[in-house]
Specification:
- By secondary structure, this protein is α+β, with helices and mostly antiparallel strands.
- 28% of the residues lie in helices and 21% in strands.
- It has two domains: 141 residues, Alpha-Beta Complex (Quinone Oxidoreductase, Chain A, domain 1); 46 residues, no CATH class.
- It contains seven helices and seven strands, in the order βββαββααβαβααα.
- The protein has a five-stranded antiparallel beta sheet. It has a two-stranded antiparallel sheet with strand order 1-2.
- The radius of gyration is 18 Å and the shape is globular.
């Protein structure tokens, strides 16, 4: 299959890479699209980035294989899948710092979202894969992960009615909606 591979020094190139297969509890997706995250851009500029690497994690795709034991998803389903999943039981998870969890750091989509196909590990399938409603476009669906990050930030900031907030993590219309729903006043 084809993928866009980071070779270091900001150099990206299309390459042939092995196509993954779905193991027990896993899904294989044929990607429809993948968003470009700020963390991907940072890796392009980072001379210490691990290479070669297939970047991308804001994925939307169609299930083409479902491993033994997969429940709730079947071939042909259009889904989004998160790239990291915390264990929910460690010190960091109990304190609300899931991104520090070892399981979170070790769970990844294989090889990455800038490929034709991606394998979704079993833990990600169980906890962080969702069917996409028909009314959402692929582009809109690719914003599920960034939107979740923004909503988590609003929750962690404990924005209350009457607070003033300037969220910068969403397009303008969505920022305004998130701010209004939290009850915060805009900065003028």
């Amino acid at each position: 299959m084809r993928a866009v591979v980071l070779h270091g020094g900001g150099h990206l190139a299309a390459a042939d890479v092995p196509r993954p297969a779905a193991g027990p509890g896993e899904l294989l997706l044929r990607l429809r699209g993948c968003g470009l995250c700020g963390s991907d851009i940072a890796k392009l500029a980072d001379p210490g980035a691990r290479v070669p690497a297939v970047l991308g994690h804001e994925v939307v795709g169609d299930v083409v294989e479902a491993g033994d034991g997969v429940r709730g998803f079947g071939v042909g389903d259009r889904v989004v899948a998160a790239h990291h999943v915390p264990c929910g039981a460690c010190h960091y998870c109990w304190r609300g710092s899931e991104s520090m969890c070892r399981a979170f750091k070790e769970s990844n989509l294989d090889p990455g979202g800038f490929a034709e196909f991606v394998r979704v590990p079993a833990g990600n399938v169980r906890a962080a894969t969702f069917r996409v409603p028909d009314h959402l476009t692929d582009e809109e669906a690719s914003f599920v992960e960034p939107l979740a990050c923004c909503l988590r930030a609003v929750e962690r900031a404990r924005v209350q009615p009457g607070d003033t907030a300037l969220p910068r993590c969403l397009p303008t219309r969505r920022r305004s909606r998130a701010r209004r729903q939290a009850g915060a006043a805009p900065i003028t």
